[in-house]
Design goal:
Helices cover 37% and strands 18% of the residues. It is of the alpha/beta class. The protein has five domains: 74 residues, Non-ribosomal Peptide Synthetase Peptidyl Carrier Protein, Chain A (Orthogonal Bundle), CATH 1.10.1200; 316 residues, Rossmann fold (3-Layer(aba) Sandwich), CATH 3.40.50; 117 residues, Luciferase, domain 3, CATH 2.30.38.10; 109 residues, GMP Synthetase, Chain A, domain 3; 198 residues, Glycerol-3-phosphate (1)-acyltransferase (3-Layer(aba) Sandwich), CATH 3.40.1130.
Amino acid sequence: MLQFSQEPQAEAPSDANAQVLLDVIGQLVEEVRPHAAAAPTLDSAFERDLGIDSLGRVELLERIERTFGYRLPEHVIISAETPRDLLRGLPHTGAAAAPHLTPQLARETATAPTALQASATEVVVPRHAKTLVEVFEWHAQHQPQRQHITLYGDDETPESITYGELYTGAMAIAAALRQRDLMPRQTVALMLPTSRAFFESFLGILLAGAIPVPLYPPVRPSQIEDHMRRQLGILDNAQATMMITMPEVQTLARLLQPNVPTLRHVVTSRELEGVASDGTRPAVEAADMAFLQYTSGSTGNPKGVVLTHANLLANIRAMMLAAAVTPQDVFVSWLPLYHDMGLIGAWLGSLYQAFHLVIMSPLTFLTRPQRWLEAIHVHRGTLSGGPNFAYELCTRRIVDEDIAGYDLSSWRIAFSGAEPVSPATMQHFSERFAAYGFRSGAMAPVYGLAEGTLGLAFPAFGRGPRLDPVRREVFTRTGRAAPAAADDPEPLTFVSCGYPLSGHQIRIVDTLGYEVPERQEGHLEFSGPSATSGYFRNPEASRDLKRDGWIDSGDLAYIAEGEVFITGRAKDIIIRAGRNLHPYELEEAIGNLPGVRKGCVAAFGSPDPVSGTERLVVLAETRDTDAKQHTLLRSQIDALIVDMLGAPADDVVLAPPQTVLKTSSGKIRRAASRERYERGDIGKRPAAIWWQLLRLGATSVWPRLRRMSRSLLELAYGLGAWAVLGLTMLILLIAVAIVPTQPSRQALAQRLTRLALRVLGIRLTVQGLDQIPDVHPYVVVVNHASYVDAVVLSATLPPGLCYVGKRELGSLAIARFLFERLGVEFVERLDAQKSLEDSDRLFNRVQGGQSMVFFPEGTFGREPGLRPFRMGAFTIAAQAGAAVVPVALRGTRSVLRSEQWLPHPRPVRVTILPPLYPKGTEWHDRLSLREATRTAILQHCGEPALETPAAPTVFMKPPEA
């Protein structure tokens, strides 16, 4: 939070202290900015003059405290603008040095607030709620005394907030907003730090029927003016009618108010307190907008993601289900509330699921990362997480003496998301804190984005990260993620982000929009109930976002065994210390500086293995060659970047004309410029024209030809495959009309389908044929992933079996004739009465000695995953006393996925598992048989379990100690 005043000093700081401080700062500046123009002075600006950003301040804090043996208050290191400001917070020479303070959180867990303070013995989650407002009101009505939040503020004293207290405060703010003529569905900007005021204001806006627009607040006083000017684009795009902010920002916001025609009021949260509410509120529907999540601070073309209450609750429920979260969990968070990971994942998730949220300011974490681990220790946190850089920061900054006695064994899920996940960072963090009870299996890389509300893919929690080493040369050349050999000296390693959340789908497509096979890199697209409808008042960006009902994530990825592996970004966002930086306006502003060639600036991110995040690199062309002019120009560029982004660049490279690469239409080629920078080619003498042309041809024509040839080959294969299958079916149709017995017809079909698969290059591997019982009847149960499943089974299973298929397959007379001659029994899925009759008919056939093949999922989709099994096959097997033979198919979905019509030559494995025998005919016996069968198939099909969300609403409170 902003701090404008320093602690009063009894006497001026000594020259000795000043010189020691400047020496410490100077050493750090030499390390982070070797091109710095001058040594630091007491009045040098940390960011503008010295290039020390928020992460640099953390390092500086550690060095100052180690040098002076004194613990600075957190607000001093954050709000200080110059070394002189820091000096005022240090003890004076000759005075008794203040002791190094112990961490501020209480170390005795017995004194920590408990997460379970409801008087009832049951905690209920409102699964019926259709809006976030209903969720909040339900908890406030049914368990008002239940502790919802423990908030650590500036004074480091924990503040407890119950559902009832939060509801009272939010209703007062809602009433105050309505008094100021706020109408339903109008937008209200919310610029507040992590505080009780934020929680009450956000919910108060919702209770007033309006739409919150969270914006990040300025950190330091010097940033306020520039910060507010950068928010004008968002405020105007959002058509904000009101703004709730801090007193420090209010005056300037009112001066800028004329720039936003819709903005009528700029108020502080304190001005909204104490208004009596009449207990009423406007109606809010599931389709109404819950809030606007802006993905960019750009003033030129800001993008506000539209999220409805339905989107929000669908995503929260899917995430809670995937993570098996209960009201007994404790989420410890330092994540900012203006970011979707902190707002939705931490707070709104806890609001819905009624688990305890322990939250502190992001600045607290940045200045003292051990406070995060201490809160987990004290409150027995089970859930927590952050971007990759947060784990890297803890590994590098925390020393053992800061966390002596900590116990992190309660931490069951450590989410890592919001920026690329580093395998090395995860390993280093796990190893570093294993001695404090942290389990490596708790580390969980996840994937999501604002356009999908928040979460999109979660891993199997508890197993730890899944790493996929692939052959570097093959991947970089073709995009094929071919597994690397164990002795591969330098594989590319990608991290799994898990499986799509329940009810959501992910697909990987090429540049033309065609879905690619498994382990092929492409553009990640998704769909599901959490997907946004578009960007607020930005039709052009909204049109670019969607294609045929799928949303373009802007990320590159591949899928292997149902799991998503992110490989890079197709968009130009720079991720630095968990913050998204967009290069467009930065490049334009730098191009306007005297001495810089306009339109010849590239800003891009370059991975930094030390910090675990990305370095911001600016490459600018200039005709000046004088070294002094270069130094001056770098200082001007740094100052501009600080003004726009609040932090300097990590590297400013001045280069001669024609260095920044462009497309033929004049667009900056940032990725290519980044590659040139990372190769160290900047400033080298350009190659001869003929060599450039030759190299250009090799790098542009050949990939196009390769892609075109691959597409043509895939098309040719697909058409040829259908020709082979069509010819096979024609021969089979003639044969089954002639061959007299069903076993003979099935034996002929087996030979033909085996031949067809061999011709198509589909390598078929079969294991466990000896598991099939010698005595009939038995029931074969198979997972269903593709239309080719029946072809594979026909080529694999012994003749004489009866296959069960949906009645729609026999809608055409010729198809019905073929299937019936091959022994297919049709069943009705939609008519309940006919379905029961079909079940009786199938039971009679099994009881009469006929073995049958069932697809208990009933259907299949394009997304990978084993669906829940229906009970029919297991009821028949139990009542007839027949063995159940589980059969797992693996790879058929990659051969021909649902909604696609071009097959691919992929290997297929058929695993026949040991038979399972029913223990009885009771309902629980049939359920047990079904679950045992599904578990067996799940272990061999290579796909995750897709579960239908259950309707559990009651969680038992554990007995009191």
